[in-house]
């Protein structure tokens, strides 16, 4: 750092040397000063800019918004920020970002405003390009979802035909006592069944298209739990699962979608149980400021923590083989929860059970 001792730079020379454009206005809302960088940027003289001269450089499409920002804030003596296009010395309009702050004497008398302004053209162009890419990406994603919906919908019909003829064939072979053929057809039929389940889930996932109809209402999550439990009843009874819950809050969401989330988490908690242990599952909700954080905890087989994010991806399965499934259940949960501005995540250790969490903004 250089010593300032002996530096005789005057405040006005400092303001002129600053790498920002600076202006000031009187209490009567008249611009009285522009520093050298401003004048160089504009390619104009101080006399041309003071008063309302500077407004000649503001892009006509931005002028009204710009003046409204000044007026509203001047009246309230508030600091403000406004961006607009300003004509440079080479006649190019470039985006600038301006900060204005009220000035007061030490006795609190309002003296007007001081402002600083920087050229943000490059940043603005990068932001606009990013925005365009995001829009494009969103469009591609929607197209992909529409494709998945259309394809899974149209695949159902031919698969139904294959299934019914395979059934007929299996019956005929059974009559003819053709054991080998019956066995082969059994494999075909279980493949079809699995494919039908997959298509159903895919249809389910792709029907969550952005903008697709939802009925958002106030929901009592205790009732949602009961509905989800009802859907998992057969598996719960078969495995003698003990499923409990705390008192759950009210939220605002689509009933069917929230039931689906809870149902997917409960059915996973039952499915991924330890072979010789009764599944014990507990559902609770914690009040966390702006949101509710729900938890579905189980005593199942668990999984390595490193996969905690991956399992929410489409078709991502850690336990294949004996555990049936499509690998779409958690992807569906994620899509639904994120629609409401919530998050979903999990904690687990192999052999130590899992905890699945999801948050929802308060109703
Ligand atoms: P699916 O159950 O159809 O395979 P999901 O998307 O519901 O698909 O789950 C993805 C994967 O996450 C599962 O295949 C399983 O490996 C793992 N998983 C989900 N829930 C649990 C759980 N409660 N305990 C252990 N592993 C789980």
Task: Explain the overall architecture.
With 363 residues, the protein is an alpha+beta fold. The chain has three domains: 8-119, Beta-Lactamase (2-Layer Sandwich); 128-209; 216-361, 2-Layer Sandwich (Heat Shock Protein 90), CATH 3.30.565. It has ten helices and twelve strands. Strand 11 and strand 12 form a beta hairpin. Helix 7 (221-231) packs across helix 9. The longest helix has 55 residues, at 121-175. The structure holds adenosine-5'-diphosphate.
Short description:
The chain is α+β, with helices and mostly antiparallel strands.
Distance between the termini: 55 Å
Percent helix range: 40-55%
Series of H and E elements: HEEHHHEEEHHEHHEEHEEHEE
Q: Which fold name fills CATH's third level, the topology of the largest domain?
A: Heat Shock Protein 90
Round the Cα radius of gyration to an integer and report it: 33 Å
Could you give the order of strands across the largest sheet?
A: 2-1-5-4-3
Total helical elements = 10
Bound molecules: adenosine-5'-diphosphate
As residue ranges, the low-confidence spans are none
Architecture of the largest domain in CATH?
A: 2-Layer Sandwich
Approximate shape: elongated
**Name of the CATH homologous superfamily of the largest domain:** Histidine kinase-like ATPase, C-terminal domain
Question: What fraction of residues sit in β-strands?
Answer: 15-25%
Mean pLDDT: 92
Structural class by secondary-structure content: alpha+beta
The largest pleated sheet is described as: 5 strands, antiparallel
- Annotation, overall tally of beta strands: 12
């Amino acid at each position: 750092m250089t010593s300032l001792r002996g530096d005789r730079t005057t405040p006005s020379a400092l303001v002129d040397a600053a790498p920002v454009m600076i202006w000031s206005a009187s209490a009567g809302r008249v611009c009285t000063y522009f520093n050298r960088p401003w004048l160089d940027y504009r390619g104009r003289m101080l006399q041309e800019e003071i008063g309302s001269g500077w407004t000649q450089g503001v892009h006509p499409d931005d002028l009204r918004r710009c003046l409204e920002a000044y007026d509203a804030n001047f009246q309230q003596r508030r600091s403000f920020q406004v961006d607009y296009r300003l004509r440079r010395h080479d006649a190019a309009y470039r985006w600038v970002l301006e900060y204005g702050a009220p000035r007061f004497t030490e006795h609190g008398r309002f003296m007007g405003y001081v402002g600083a302004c920087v050229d943000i053209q490059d940043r603005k162009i990068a932001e606009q390009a990013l925005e365009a890419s995001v829009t494009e990406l969103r469009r591609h994603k929607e197209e992909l979802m529409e494709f998945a919906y259309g394809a899974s919908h149209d695949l159902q019909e031919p698969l139904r035909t294959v299934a019914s003829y395979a059934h007929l064939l299996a019956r005929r072979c059974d009559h003819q006592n053709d054991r080998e053929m019956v066995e082969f057809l059994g494999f075909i039929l279980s493949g079809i069944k699995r494919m039908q389940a997959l298509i159903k889930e895919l249809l389910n996932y792709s029907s969550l298209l952005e903008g697709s109809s939802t009925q958002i209402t106030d929901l009592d999550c205790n009732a949602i739990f009961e509905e989800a439990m009802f859907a998992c009843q057969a598996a719960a009874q078969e495995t003698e699962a003990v499923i409990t819950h705390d008192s759950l809050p009210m939220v605002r969401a689509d009933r069917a979608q929230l039931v689906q989330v809870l149902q997917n988490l409960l059915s996973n908690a039952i499915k991924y149980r330890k072979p010789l242990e009764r599944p014990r599952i507990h559902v609770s909700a914690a009040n966390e400021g702006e949101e509710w954080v729900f938890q579905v905890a189980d005593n199942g087989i668990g999984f390595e923590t490193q996969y905690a994010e991956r399992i929410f991806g489409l078709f991502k399965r850690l336990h294949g083989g004996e555990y049936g499934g499509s690998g779409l259940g958690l992807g569906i949960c994620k899509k639904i929860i994120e629609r409401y501005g919530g998050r979903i995540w999990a904690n687990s250790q192999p052999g130590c059970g899992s905890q699945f969490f999801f948050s929802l903004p308060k109703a």
